[in-house]
Amino acid sequence: MEKVKAFLKRKDIEISLKRYGIDALGAMAQGLFCSLLIGTIINTLGTQFGLKFLTEPVATISDVTYTVGGIATAMSGPAMAVAIGYALKCPPLVLFSMISVGFAANALGGAGGPLAVLFIAILAAECGKAVSKETKVDILVTPLVTIGIGVFLSWLIAPPIGKAAMWIGDLIKWATEQQPFFMGILVSVVVGMALTLPISSAAICAALRLTGLAGGAAVAGCCAQMVGFAVISFKENRWGGLVSQGIGTSMLQMSNIVKNPRIWIAPTLASAITGPIATCLFKLQMNGAPVSSGMGTCGLVGQIGVYTGWVNDVAAGTKAAITSFDWIGLVMISFILPALFSYVIHLGVKKLGWVKDGDMKL
Fold it and tell me: Are 291 and 267 in contact (CB under 8 A)?
């Protein structure tokens, strides 16, 4: 056992929730940002502004044409796998081999590809790290083991993992449509809290393909956390804190939450209120890239995702037009209501003596 522990330590193979559930998951989200999300944004910009160089095909592969954004989107599997490999501190030959692993896992995982990529990339990467530089023909052995295991696992378990992810995502979306009030609260609170915790809400939403009303509730929850913390901590952090939390991430408050969990009450209760308002009153749907559902106001990606969904729905004929009520709902859910509810609730929390000035200083 001691020899095994020593070997794992030498290979930097750390079997832990932090390494796989936080580092790898967070990196996967970044890979999605740099492929699927950016590709979606490029396509939306090209369509809305009539930029032909973004809408015209730039490549044709096996009779399938790709635009600039289409190429970026098509590379989402390799991008996720390489990002995960980077987070797991893979040596170069393992890291480069992850490109093939990610492509196979994402392709065979179907609509639930991101979740399949997460599991398979972790296993393939750790196996690759285990054999890396252990032989004199490392340049052959390491890629063969990494790609071989990755592709085999993709063939074996990617389809069922993908189907399971789709089933769970579809169940959440169906439940939200059946019970928009209660599921609006649940999805908004859970995804919002995931955004503030050191895990990736974006990756979770992408893995479960959380769109539609459930996606709208997720956007509401994330916005409540980010805008909420930005507003209630303005006295301590001023404009720099407003921007870094409101357009960056509420995860910056995690160390302060550990010290005093009660500072989390206002943004979380705000998300419990804005979630059902989004699903029941404004009927807010996020039908853009699923990763956008877990982004909130971070770089305004959540709002761009909602707008992209509107555009796609109009083009598909499932939505007549983008109305002023749509825009009012998006602005209210994203900015105004989270700020208002968080501020009012925070005043009550402070009056109870649960939170004091300085508790949210960054």
Answer: no
Q: Which two tokens stand for residue 191?
A: 């995804």
In whole angstroms, give the CA distance from residue 334 to residue 293: 12
Mind listing the pLDDT tens digit for each residue in 257-315? Answer: 989 999 999 999 999 999 999 999 999 999 998 989 998 998 888 999 999 999 999 98
pLDDT tens-digit series, residues 138-189: 999 999 999 999 999 999 999 999 999 889 999 999 999 999 999 999 999 9
Break the chain into its structural domains and give their ranges. 2-164, 179-351
Burial (CB count <10 Å: 0-12, 13-18, 19+), residue 112:
buried
- Answer yes or no: are the C-beta atoms of 244 and 178 closer than 8 Å: no
Quick check: 218 and 293 in contact, CB under 8 A?
yes
> What is the spatial distance between Cα 335 and Cα 198, in angstroms, rounded to a whole number?
23
- CB-based contacts of 272, cutoff 8 Å, min separation 6: 185, 188, 189
**Beta-ladder partners of 216:** none
Of the candidates 122, 98, 110, 222, the one whose C-alpha atom is nearest the C-alpha of residue 165 is: 110
Identify which of 108, 121, 120 has the alpha carbon closest to the alpha carbon of residue 81. 121
Q: What is the pTM of this model?
A: 0.82
166 and 209 in contact (C-beta within 8 Å)? yes
**296: helix, coil or strand?**
coil
User: What is the C-alpha to C-alpha distance for residues 202 and 191, in angstroms, rounded to an integer?
Assistant: 9
Identify the CA nearest to 336 among candidates 282, 263, 258, 264.
282
Residue 4 CB neighbours (<10 A) = 8
Closest CA to 188 of 220, 144, 225, 160: 220
What is the Cα gyration radius of the chain?
A: 22
Could you tell me which of 214, 198, 193, 219 has the C-alpha nearest to residue 294?
A: 219
